[in-house]
Amino acid sequence: MSVVDRAMRSLATLESRLIVGSVHAIRGLTIVVDRLRVPVGSLVEIETAMGTAMGEVIGFEGPRSLAMLFGSSAGVSPGSPVRAKSLTATVAVGTSWLGRVLDALGRPIDNGPPIDDLENCALEPPTMNPLRRGIITDPLPTGVRAIDGLLTVGRGQRLGIFAGPGVGKSTLMASIARGTAADVVVIGLVGERGREVKEFLEHTLGPEGRRKACVVTATGDDSPLLRVRAAAAAIAAAEYFRDQGKHVLLMLDSITRLAQAQRQIGLAAGEQPATKGYTPSVFALLPRLLERAGPVEAKGGERAGSITAFYTVLVEGDDLTEPIADAVKGILDGHIVLSRKIAARGHYPAIDVLDSISRVAENITDANHRMARREMIRLLAAYRESEELITIGAYAQGSSPEVDTSIALRPQILQYLQQDRSEVTPYPQSLRSLIEIAVASQGMRQRSAPQRSAQPAPQPQRAAQQPQRAAPQPAAGQKGR
Ligand SMILES: Nc1ncnc2c1ncn2[C@@H]1O[C@H](COP(=O)(O)OP(=O)(O)OP(=O)(O)O)[C@@H](O)[C@H]1O
Ligand SMILES: [Mg+2]
Questions:
Q1: Which DSSP string do the residues of 193-262 spell out, in sequence order?
Q2: Which residue puts its alpha carbon closest to atom 12 of ligand 1?
Q3: Helix 401-408 / helix 427-454 crossing angle, nearest 10 deg
Q4: pLDDT tens digit string along 88-146?
Q5: In degrees to the nearest 10, what's the CA dihedral of 321, 322, 328, 329?
Q6: How far is the CA of 93 from the centre of ligand 2 (A)?
Q7: Could you say which of 218, 292, 433, 462 is the most buried, measured as most Cβ atoms within 10 Å of its Cβ?
Q8: Cα dihedral sign for 413, 417, 421, 424?
Q9: pLDDT < 50 regions, the chain
């Protein structure tokens, strides 16, 4: 940003301080303010009997503005002065953010040194020229085998992690944050439990994960305004690093809690609830925020960079058609579904590979990788189709070469898909192991094909009468799925 830009922005901040209104009424969560003619999104300060309280303008009604406070409204009285603090919704971001934990207003909350060399970034910048958007051509390794091998993520891709409560969304996100090859990781923790934030930083992310990461957080007990701001600030920070030519990994946990926060704001501003109680502004906000991720090309002095995004979505009762999941899915180029059934077997990460999809995987992988992916997916599908028979011991070996192979290779497949949360597998190694399984599978199927043509096909009835326990017992800790 130029010196003139900087000066203009500080002038705007100074000027805004001269606009002072007064509290007319409090209605639920909103404060009705007289004579405060400022745009929606402006930050305001209210002088209360207990000090100053900060808030944001969320709407207006005729000549009066509607503001919502970031904290409690205790101490606000009729006529309390309301001063405009900033007329634009911005957050001050800088490279000094790396390794730090910040609140929704960009203030460090980790007792570290002050942050400096900051640049004001718009929380909602104008939409990018579509011609600057690049195309996804390269993979972005995550360190998680099941993802790198089977659901390969591209630089600039937008993915959702969908799961019911407690199935492992946050843990998977943290594993990716630690194992990723991205230059910078920006993590937005929106509406998380306060305890989880500390646990996430200290245990899950660890010191090496934190070095190239910054965390913006607003917990569940913060005002809904701060929760929405935290998400917007995380995205603005990701854009700041992208514009420096970095490949950024953006993670937002969770979109559901972001949507719930926006619903609270919408209802307070007088919106009517629509689908399942969510207000129309929720469905307007989601694409505006989430579509800002993606690759950008170098153009007109701007550098190329990318924002690859993972957004977690809580699906109640594992229902992928609930309105928020549905709205988010429409914005994404892929989704990773975590299954409670798989997690219940102690299989982590509990990724349901067959229900998940990376829409760019085919375009960013080489021929060997594509062959191996297809082979593995074929094995997983064959096993799932006959799983019930296999589990009760009613599957007759020889009925299908694909199922036979999937049973024989089951231990290797499970070993590939299961991964400890702290284990990072380098991308070439994930690829090598996947190709080994695929080659073994093709060999087995080819060997069984001539035998099958020489033998009469097995009779399903005989198979049911003479059940064989064909499934090999997985190694300890690798329960069948
Ligand atoms: N990779 C893993 N290895 C071992 N255990 C795991 C793993 N992932 C998740 N778990 C278990 O599942 C629990 C819930 O995980 P996590 O908090 O990541 O779920 P979540 O989907 O984010 O939950 P919520 O919906 O409440 O935010 C963890 O406390 C842990 O016991
Ligand atoms: Mg979680």
A1: -HHHHHHIIIIIIHHHHHHTEEEEEEETTS-HHHHHHHHHHHHHHHHHHHTTT-EEEEEEE-HHHHHHHH
A2: 168
A3: 140
A4: 788 889 999 998 899 999 999 888 888 888 888 888 888 877 777 888 989 999 999 99
A5: -10
A6: 26
A7: 218
A8: positive
A9: 11, 14, 454-481
DSSP 478: -
From CA 301, how far away is CA 101, in angstroms rounded?
A: 31
List, for residues 287-323, the tens digit of each pLDDT value.
988 989 888 887 766 778 899 999 999 987 666 678 8
Q: How far apart are CA 105 and CA 56, in angstroms?
A: 12
Nearest CA to ligand 1 atom 10: 168
Ligand 1 atom at shortest distance from the alpha carbon of 196 = 17
* Ligand 1 pocket by Cβ (under 6 Å): 163, 165-171, 314, 348-349, 421
Protein residue whose Cα sits closest to atom 25 of ligand 1: 165
- Output the six-digit token pair for 302: 């701007």
Cα(41) to centroid(ligand 2), Å: 29
Distance CA 69, CA 76 (A): 10
CA of 377 to the centre of ligand 1 (A): 25
**Which ligand is closest in space to the CA of residue 169?**
1
- Four-CA torsion 268, 270, 274, 278, nearest 10 degrees: -20
- Residue located nearest, by CA, to atom 11 of ligand 1: 168
- Ligand 2 centroid to Cα of residue 173, in Å, is 9
Residues ≥6 apart with Cβ < 8 Å to 301: none
The amino acid that residue 223 corresponds to is S
For residue 343, the CA-to-ligand 2 centroid distance in Å is 14
Closest C-alpha to ligand 1, atom 4: 348
Residue whose tokens read 């946050």: 170
- Residue 435's H or E segment, with its range, is helix 427-454
